[in-house]
Amino acid sequence: MSKPNCTNFLNAQHSTGPRTEVGKKRSSLNALRHGLTSQVVVLPTEDLAAYVTFIAEFQNDLKPAGVIEKQLVQTLADTQWRLNRCAALESNLYSVELADAAAIAAQAHAEKDRLKRNLSEACNIAHVETPQLPDPDLTLALNTARAFQKNESAIRTLGIHEQRLQRIFHQTFKLLQTLQAQRRSEDQSHLQRAALLQQANQAKGLPYNPAEDGFVCSNAEIDLYIACQARVKEAHAVAAFGFDPKKIAAADLVSV
Asked: How is the chain split into domains, by residue range?
């Protein structure tokens, strides 16, 4: 083992990680950090791998180019992640109350069964109708209403927060669409001019380097654009004959 490696090995033996509770909690959040912002972006109850997959789906679908578009897509994904969390939080608020109500109901269930059996026996002896217990669906509806009433303030605050996130999402998406439309329009314009210049050089028997004219497209991209434009021109000519094979063949436009 070389001397530097020995030193590193010995030094590593003295590193036991964070020792204080604050340090341990801070260290535990490292697994919840995302590399782009180095910030804690998911809650301890959430899955960082699911978040990373969620971000990748936005990137693959919206195909951003350049740092600004990429940051806007990141904002969209983060905002939608938080919107999904809002929906989960609202459901959890109801679930907690309903779970408590279910626990209370479960505790009383045995007592109700006992009372029901006693009442049934008493009613049979007295020849009267057995009283009906509360309807389960009605009980659930009432418990849901009570859950809302108990958490009304939290649910309303959550709703306001959700509306703010929705505004951020729509504004960001609109800005992204505008930037991408401008970029694609500029790219198309540059490609058209580069194709024209390449064809002019080819007519003179000269090579063409698009970078010399400030274009970032490659010759392969220019060739693909020219070929596509030729096919579109041919398609328009075929359409002028109503896509009739006989007329197309007579005009000697394309083979059918």
From this structure: 41-186, 188-251
pTM of the full predicted structure? Answer: 0.60
Looking at residue 2, its amino acid is S
pLDDT, tens digit, for every residue of 87-132?
A: 887 776 766 666 665 555 555 565 666 666 666 665 555 544 545 5
214 phi-psi bin (left φ>0, alpha ψ -120 to 50, beta other): left
d(CA 199, CA 235): 21
Task: State the Cα–Cα distance between residues 218 and 223, nearest whole angstrom.
Answer: 9
> Cα(246)–Cα(155) distance, rounded to whole angstroms?
69
Measured CA to CA, the distance from residue 58 to residue 77 in angstroms comes to 6
- 72 close to 176: Cβ distance less than 8 angstroms: yes
> For tokens 């006992």, what's the residue?
114
